[in-house]
Specification:
Helix content: 40-55%
Protein name: Transposase
Number of helices: 12
Radius of gyration: 23 Å
Order of helices and strands: EEEHEHEHHHHHHHEEEEHHH
Strand content: 5-15%
Distance between the termini: 31 Å
Structural class: alpha/beta
Pfam family, one: Transposase_20
GO molecular function, one term: transposase activity
InterPro entries: Transp_IS110-like_N (IPR002525), Transpos_IS110 (IPR047650), Transposase_20 (IPR003346)
């Protein structure tokens, strides 16, 4: 990850909506259209060192691209950290202008710890879009199947059947697209390393690589935390609370649940690890979480060390 090496003299705060962007430039806030031409015109007149924005479901893409085109460093901040920063100042009100000012203040105060945006590989972006769409279709298929089994659904059986057939074809096509994408280039090698792990299939490997593209470039603690599988302490004085996993990317837990269940059934590479945890008195759900964390940590190490074959 890249960071600034000196304090920014000016930091632009961008509060982004679908059609407009509120920009804090020093003491003033202006609104521009969320269009490439308007963004480029504004940035051409700016001499800032840093731009800070929030993730907005993709509406920030144009801004980030234009900032990188003109050489302006960009940080896309964690929304929870930004909200905590705003709350720490005792501010309750919320508007586009207020958020833009706070984004600018956040960048000026926290600049040393803010990782700068680096453009991801286009193949990773495509894989992530395919994996997300596949997840949406899987959820739609489950919902449609549940509706087809509801009382009184027999008269609508033809519509359920037709809809499920379309969804199945779409999932099959996405699976083929994922297979093609992960069958060439760097993604092929990363997939081979992941699938060499007993219990990780091609679908799970593709989902992990798409959801955690940072795998192989982190230490084990960062990997577990980013995956949302690190047990965070809950202690105060003499009180030792129950450690819970939280934060991170919760979709990773969904992806790794079935591989962890395989270990619980005595199958796969981590079956012995699960058995030791169960024998030591760990609750089943705690042991499953530990197995998921172990998978992420081991996979991160193998991708880092470029190890395909298991010892």
């Amino acid at each position: 990850m890249a960071f600034l090496h000196h304090p920014p003299s000016r930091c632009l705060g961008f509060d982004i909506a679908k059609e407009t962007i509120a920009v804090c430039d020093g003491s003033k806030v202006i609104t521009i259209a969320n269009r490439r031409s308007d963004i480029r015109r504004f940035l051409s007149r700016s001499n800032a060192d840093l731009a800070v924005c929030e993730p907005t479901g993709g509406f920030e893409t144009l801004l980030i691209e234009e900032c990188q085109r003109c050489g302006l460093a960009v940080h896309r901040c964690d929304t929870r950290k930004l909200k905590a920063f705003i709350r720490s100042k005792g501010r309750i009100g919320k508007s586009d202008a207020i958020d833009a000012r706070e984004l600018s203040a956040y960048g000026l105060e926290r600049w040393a710890s803010l990782a700068l945006w680096c453009a991801p590989d286009c193949r990773e972006v495509h894989l992530k879009a395919l994996v997300r769409r596949r997840g949406d279709l899987m959820a739609m298929r489950v919902a449609e199947r549940n509706r087809s089994k509801a009382p009184g659904a027999r008269r609508l059986a033809a519509t359920f059947k037709a809809t499920l057939a379309v969804i199945d074809r779409q999932i099959a096509q996405i699976d083929r697209d994922i297979a093609v994408l992960t069958g060439t280039g760097p993604l092929k090698h990363r997939t081979e390393i992941a699938t060499a792990m007993n219990g990780i299939g091609k679908t799970t490997a593709a989902a992990l690589i798409a959801t955690l593209p940072e795998l192989g470039r982190m230490d084990r603690r960062h990997a577990a935390s980013l995956a949302g599988l690190a047990p965070h302490p809950n202690e105060s004085g003499k009180t030792i609370g129950y450690r819970r996993i939280r934060g991170g990317r919760p979709e990773v837990r969904t992806i790794l649940f079935m591989p962890a269940m395989q270990a619980a059934r005595g199958k796969g590479e981590f079956a012995a690890f699960y058995k030791r945890l169960a024998a030591s008195g760990k609750k089943p759900i705690v042991a499953l979480a530990a197995v998921m964390r172990k998978i992420v940590v081991v996979l991160n190490a193998r991708l880092r060390d470029d190890l395909v074959q298991q010892s």
